[in-house]
TrEMBL record:
CDD domains: ABC_6TM_TmrB_like. PROSITE patterns: ABC_TM1F, ABC_TRANSPORTER_1, ABC_TRANSPORTER_2. Residues 19-303 form the ABC transmembrane type-1 domain. This is ATP-binding cassette, subfamily B. One of its GO terms (molecular function) is ATP hydrolysis activity. Residues 337-573 form the ABC transporter domain. The chain crosses the membrane at residues 16-39, 59-77, 130-153, 159-178, 243-263, 283-301. It is a multi-pass membrane protein.
Amino acid sequence: MKAFKPLEDFFIQNKWYYIFGIIWLLIIDAIQLIVPQILRTATNLLQEGKLTFSGILKYGLYIILTGLGIAIGRYFWRNYIIGTSRKLEYHLRKKLFGHLLTLSPNFFHTQKTGDLMAHATNDINAIRHALGMGIIMFVDSIFITILAIVMMIRTTNLRLTIIALFTLPFITIMVRRFGKVIHNRFRTVQEAFSQLTDVTQESFAGIRVIKSFVQEDLVIENFNKVNENNLEKNLKLVKISGVFHPLINFISSISFFIIIIYGGRLVILDIISLGDFIAFNNYLNLLVWPMMAMGWVINLLQRGIASMERINALLEEKPEIVDSDNAIELNSMKGKIEFKNVSFKYPTKENYALEDINFTIEEGQTLAIVGKTGSGKTTIVNLLLRLYDIKEGSILIDDVNIKNIDLKSLRENISYVPQDNFLFSTSIRENIGFAFDEPIDDETMIQSSKLAQVYDNIIAFPNKFETVLGERGVTLSGGQKQRVSIARALAKDSPVLILDDSLSAVDTETEEKILNGLKNIVKRKTTIIISHRISTVKDADHIIVLDEGRIVERGTHESLLELNGLYRYLYEKQLLEEKIS
Ligand SMILES: Nc1ncnc2c1ncn2[C@@H]1O[C@H](COP(=O)(O)OP(=O)(O)OP(=O)(O)O)[C@@H](O)[C@H]1O
């Protein structure tokens, strides 16, 4: 139970819902226990020939009234307890999601998205069940069991009660045993189903590759395999459920069998009345559910605790990158950037991704970084944005170590166009205005999309800036995506602009237009341009050439060409490629 400690605040805040829910639950339990008494009186009167038609109507009415009372009470406890467990689910999901977003990218590199999704769905569901239905079953089964047994002993016969109760605990044992197996099989059904959805989703997403490689048969064969697996797992679940329910019915019918034989004898011998016998059967019937509930409740609680422990482990995960105690806010960043003796290894790697990096970019200057793939270009940006922290060397902005700059203010002062151009499945307007809390104003949106040379494309769509992107919307070309991503960064208008291979998917003519358009902006900002293409970087104030994590050459376009080194080699190779194409 210690596992639920982090939810203490929630329980305190919602204690009245739980208390009212439990009170209603107890009220309807008490009403349920009246029904056998009504039947007892009515039957005894019938047997004695004292019941008139109006009497029958009266007792019938009592039964209906208890039914109504139970229905009303159920409505309230469902609302109070199940409703609160839904709030708990919302609260926990919000807390977990909010916490996960504080964690560093490295955490997401080491965790599978599927596992995180499973925590956010299955584990939170298990906690909701334990603290919703679990509580209800627990209170209900204890209360009904005690009261029904007391009523059976007090109003009918002790011996009959002991005999009748003999088989009932087997129901609890069976529910416990079968409950575990059913749960495991249910989980494999869920896994098989999610495998089926994954394969289906991937087949539709990759439809162009499948068709162009004429591999429809292979894909159908794969699909059939997972579909068969799903069927097999479902049949296993059906089989065990098929045994479980009749078995429980059978065990409870043994009790009724004993009662009919022994209780019937007591009626014949006139030790108990027929009304007692009927009431007793009713009490016994009421006891079957709590016996099952006891079994379920133990399983629900065990699963809930295990899930809560997994969620707690995630909630205790500390963000690797946090503000230092004396972090300062950069309200008007000028944009001088300095890397001093920076060396860096990714936490999961043995080798250095960057070694002994030194450079300075003065306010308003442009630095270009070129180098072969995997040479460490993006890593420089990752470090500047503090997506990873360095242990060797220092990075300064406006002469302040970035470790001493408030993280939010550091990132707010940098407009970044990432290499993967990730866009959200919302409208183009919302994507371009992503940096703002309020909807973006038309002027900024239009201006930045014009500068990114994507305005004409956007207004050619029927819904223009309201065009929704992604699966249920328009699919943009690689180059259009890059340019929307550039527009998003330009709209943010921060003192530092970083373009990470952001023009690779556009043709050289569009590239030229974008670079020309950016000229005025770039003059005002400190800019880092990462590119494979020399044409993109040739006008930069400084160019550094990276190779295997080290700066091997540096200078301007002209001075680097004169060096006759890697830069010149890359330049000539690209000239040749251009000529050939
Ligand atoms: N998150 C990460 N975890 C571990 N290693 C990484 C990570 N990101 C990059 N690396 C490794 O660090 C090295 C430098 O990668 P980086 O992405 O900086 O190269 P790049 O020059 O930007 O390459 P490209 O031009 O292909 O984008 C590579 O060996 C890469 O495999």
